[in-house]
Amino acid sequence: MDRIQNVLSSTLAASEGASTGMARAAQMLGRPEALIGGGAAEGPAPSFSNILSSAIQSVNSAQNQSKVLQRGYQMGDPEVGLEQTMIAMNKASLSFQMLTQARNKVVQAYTDVMNMPV
């Protein structure tokens, strides 16, 4: 039970820094008025391209971490547990699904704008 608690706490601590891009992208997609300056911001708002780039890097990082843990578990590394590997795999999968949904929303918005009568 202590090992599970340790894995969860270390996973949460590691994900706080890595998922800030995804959290920021989700926040911006949920509040599109913040993209045009209508939201309350403490300073200059980051550009949409920077947010998207950060989200993609975050997903890539989660997938790479998952791959490293999978390889370590398969090779029999005693430092890598099954629960740690499964959590990393699920995080990578969910991050990728979220990025895919964000892309779908952007493509749909572009299609809607292009289909507007002039």
UniProtKB/TrEMBL annotation:
One of its GO terms (molecular function) is structural molecule activity. Keywords: Bacterial flagellum, Cell projection, Cilium, Flagellum. Pfam families: FliE. One of its GO terms (cellular component) is bacterial-type flagellum basal body. GO terms for biological process: bacterial-type flagellum-dependent cell motility. Transmembrane segments: none annotated. InterPro entries: FliE. It is found in: Bacterial flagellum basal body. Belongs to the FliE family. NCBIfam families: fliE. This is Flagellar hook-basal body complex protein FliE. It comes from Pigmentiphaga litoralis. The lineage of its organism: Bacteria, Pseudomonadati, Pseudomonadota, Betaproteobacteria, Burkholderiales.
